[in-house]
Every structure is written in C-alpha cells, then in structure tokens.
Predict the structure.
Amino acid sequence: MSDRAAADDIAGRINVGCYAGHRYPERPEWVELDGERVDVVEIEKEWREEDRLGFAVKLRDRRRLLLYYDPNDDAWSGDFTE
C-alpha cells in the first residue's frame, strides 16, 4: 500500500490543531481521531511534497502518526505507523 493510500485510511475522521505562526500549519499540536484528543509530544520529521505537507509525529499515548496537510483542500489525513 502506498503512503498516499495508507494516509486516506483515517481521512475524514481526523482533526488536527496546529500552531500557526508565519504559515499554516507551522506545526501540529494535537490530533483528534474519533472524538479522542491526544497531544503531539514530538515532531520527528517534516517535509514538503508537491501538493501537501507531511509530519511524522509522536503522540502523548506513544503512538506514532504520519500526518498530511493538503492546502488545496484545506484537509488533513494520516496513518498510524509502528
């Protein structure tokens, strides 16, 4: 499964709260999935792709998540990693 296909697994079920300084999103601060809000404790990596921004984050509950922000649709998607 490609990263993009995997990321769509939780699309539409995820909300992300971000710090927005000079740009949005500058860094994710929390994730809400199916009504459960969990703080981001570490941003392990961030990158820019042609049509989206990516963040590899560690959550307070120790899960790791790949987050993707599509500025054209103003939408977040993501996928849990091991």
Observations:
- The first strand starts at residue 14 and ends at 19.
- The two ends are 15 Å apart (CA to CA).
- The chain is about 5% helix and 55% strand.
- The chain has a mean pLDDT of 85.
